[in-house]
Design brief:
Length: 184
């Protein structure tokens, strides 16, 4: 998503640390966090660039790999295969990513990642008030974008799981407006 120059600039003051919550788990060496980023098995995720994440399995005759799919703030989808981070711990990671950065997981925001669902979600975002903004402007509104996708595509179980309701969505929208007025 970023050029090498952009990435180096954004990583300049970041200090990645292991996550204490995972200290006793097999995923501990594969997940680190800094102020603005997560490092997951060599994959860098900016907390404001990623709207949603999904973990799955990809098997070959001799090995199982974790398949990680990402939806970015512009609705684009990326996929990464990691051999060292295993699927069985994905629920702990989903919960942590949601709690620390608001990143959605599981079956929300057009996930599971059937091509049709992600295209519908991307089209929905492009037709929303965020459609004309560039990638970096969308990053400033990532919480609103997540809530918008959740309200549109999340089922009731997801909304309960992520405690999404009108009150939280309204709060995210108000915060977005406040950020805008502070910058002016």
């Amino acid at each position: 998503m970023l050029s090498k120059t952009e990435l180096n600039k954004m990583l300049g003051d970041e200090d990645f640390q292991g996550i204490e919550k995972f200290k006793e788990m097999s995923i501990y060496p594969y997940v680190k966090e800094s102020r603005n980023w997560f490092w997951i098995g060599g994959l860098l995720l900016h907390k404001k660039m990623v709207v949603a994440i999904d973990f799955g399995l990809r098997t070959s005759p001799n090995h199982m790999h974790s398949q990680i799919k990402l939806m970015y703030v512009d609705g684009e989808v990326g996929e990464i295969i990691l051999s060292d981070l295993y699927y069985e711990r994905s629920t702990e990671l989903y919960g942590y990513l949601w709690k620390k950065a608001g990143i959605l997981g599981g079956n929300v925001a057009g996930i599971p990642w059937y091509r049709k669902n992600t295209e519908i979600a991307r089209e929905y975002l492009n037709n929303s008030k965020f459609g004309k903004k560039d990638f970096y402007e969308k990053m400033e509104h990532v919480d609103e974008i997540r809530m918008l996708l959740m309200e549109k595509f999340g089922d009731e179980e997801d909304k309960i799981k992520y405690q999404i309701g009108e009150e939280k969505a309204s709060k995210a929208i108000r915060q977005g407006r406040n950020r805008k007025s502070i910058r002016k």
